[in-house]
Amino acid sequence: MVSSEPSETAPRVVGRERELAAVRAFLAGTEPRTLVLSGGAGIGKTTLWEAGIHVARERGARVLAVRPHAAEAGLAFAGLIDLCDGVGAAAFAELPRPQRRALELALLRVEPAPNEPEPEPQQQYAPPPAEAAPDPIEQLKQLGALHEQGILTDEEFAAQKARILNG
User: Fold this and answer.
1) Which residue stretches of the chain are H helix?
2) 33 vs 27: CA distance, rounded Å
């Protein structure tokens, strides 16, 4: 998905005011940096990520975002092609020539020149094996720690605990 337009509705973020404030502060900065959202399954990383995209678009930023599917794992440059869909030639013109040429070739926007070597064919690979099922005891310990730190509300803690225990 590529857009600089604000989405119609912002994701509803409940009980994550501190984390959402950190995302907003990150987006207010101007220097190059990276924001990492990490944590256990079901604690709201995707909701925060979507809220961050919404805030960035509201502030007029061009947001390039892609969420690949497992079926695309063996397709060379599938994520890159999806990410750059809708990015026009004017944006590419701002890149240094070597990077621009490499992207244009990878995105199949141009043909290789007659004297330009063909890129090596991408080897197909199988997606990584699925991870072993998480240990419920370890999940409950992590959940308890998040609750003790005030990151999870009582309601969120109870809901996640039930999800873990009920499989």
Assistant:
1) 17-28, 45-58, 78-84, 89-93, 97-106, 136-148, 154-165
2) 10
Flag the least confident range among 82-86, 102-106, 127-131: 127-131
Q: CB 56: neighbour CB atoms within 10 A?
A: 19
Q: Nearest-CA neighbor of 46 among 73, 6, 19?
A: 19
Contact, 114 vs 135, CB < 8 A?
no
- Are 68 and 78 in contact by the 8 Å Cβ rule? The answer is yes
Q: Which two tokens stand for residue 142?
A: 């992590």
Q: Does the predicted model carry a pTM greater than 0.85?
A: no
pLDDT digits (tens, 9 = 90+) for 22-43: 888 988 888 877 888 888 888 8
Helix (H, G, I), strand (E, B) or coil at 93: helix
